[in-house]
Amino acid sequence: MIDAYGNFNRNVKAQTSIHFILTSDHNFKLWNRPFKFVAETYYKILDNIIPYQVNNVWITYNAKNDAQGFAKGIDFKVNGEFIKDLESWFSVSVMQTAVKIQGDNYYTYYNNAGQQIIPGYTANNIVADSVRHDPGYIPRPTDQRVNFGMFFQDKMPRVPDLKMHLNMIFGTGVPFGPPGSQPYQQTFRMPAYRRVDLGLSYQALKEEKQASRKKMGQYIKSVWISLEVFNLFGINNTVSYLWVQDVTQQQYAVPNYLTNRQLNLKTVIKF
Q: How far apart are CA 259 and CA 17, in angstroms?
C-alpha cells in the first residue's frame, strides 16, 4: 500500500488469480522397488496485480492495481528408491510469468539528422522527432524459466551405516535492471544459478541397540554424525549487483556473489 515515495494508497484492492491445473500421478515399480512420477501443467490468470521491483533484498511496490499478467509452466518429478531403502528424486520445471502495466510506455527522441538522442553521447540534442514504444508484457521478477533439481542418496555396501547424498540445483537467471529504472528496463538477466552439495553421514549409535547400553547411553536412541560441503565446486553465484556510474551518466553492473564454499559438521542426538 506504500509506493517508492512513501505515499499511502488506501484504495488498493486484493490481487486476484484464476488457476487452471492439470496433474498426473503414476506409481510404478523398477528393480522391484517403488517409484512415483508426477507431471503437472498450469496456467494462471493474474489480475489487479501490484507491480514491484527487486533490488537485492529491497522490494519496491507501485502501490497500484495497474497491471495484469499470467504464469504458465510445466513440472516433472520422479522419486523412488534408486538405492534400496533410500529415497532419491529428480525434478525439472519450465515456467514463464509476465505482467503488462497500464501506461508503461516510453519515447525515444531523434535529432534532425535522424540520430537517436542519447544524453552524454549525442552532440546534437535538439529533438526533431519522437517514437512511442509500448513494451507490452514484460517478465516479472520471479520469471525463472528453467529449474532442475536432484537429490540422490547412496550407501557403502560393506558399511551400511555410512551414507552419502548428492544435491544438485540449476536455475536460469531472473530479471534485473538499474536502480530507479522503469519496469520495462528491468529485463536484463542474471547468470544461471548452479550449485552442487555433497554430504556424508554416519550412524554412530542405533536405536535397536539402546537396551544393551549402560548408564547414560540408555537414554540415547541414536546418534548421527554428518559432514556436508555446500557449493562443492566453489561456483560464484550472483545474488545482486552494485551499480557504478561514470561521468557520462552511464551505469555499469558489478556482481555481488553468494557464499563460495562452506563446510558444515553436524551431530544429531535423539533421546
A: 36
Cα gap 219→222, rounded to integer Å: 9
Taking only the tens place, the pLDDT of each residue in 3-21 is 878 888 889 999 999 999 9
- The residues, any chain, with a CB within 8 Å of residue 212's CB and separated by 6 or more, are none
Using an 8 Å Cβ cutoff, are 129 and 115 in contact?
Answer: no
Mean pLDDT of the residues in the chain = 89
Between CA 188 and CA 194, with CA 190 as vertex, the angle to 5 degrees is 160
**Grid coordinates given for 222:** 541414536
pLDDT at 100: 93
* Domain-embedded: residue 141: yes
Counting every residue written for the chain, the total comes to 271
Q: Which three cell numbers stand for residue 101?
A: 502495466
pLDDT band at 210 (very low <50, low <70, confident <90, very high): low
Residue 240 phi/psi, 5° resolution? -165, -175
CB 39 within 8 A of CB 76: yes
Q: 99 exposed, middle or buried (CB, 10 Å; 0-12, 13-18, 19+)?
A: buried
Tell me the residue range of the domain where 161 lies: 16-270
Measured between alpha carbons, how far is 161 from 158 in angstroms, rounded to an integer? 9
Residue whose C-alpha cell reads 515456467 in the numeric block: 95
Report if residue 5 sits inside a domain. Answer: no
Q: Give, in order, the Cα–Cα distances in Å from 46 to each of 53, 79, 86, 97, 127.
A: 17, 32, 40, 10, 39
On whether residue 194 sits in a domain, the answer given is yes
pLDDT at 250: 79
**How many domains does the chain contain in total?**
1
Inside any domain, residue 199: yes
The 3-state DSSP class for residue 223 equals: strand
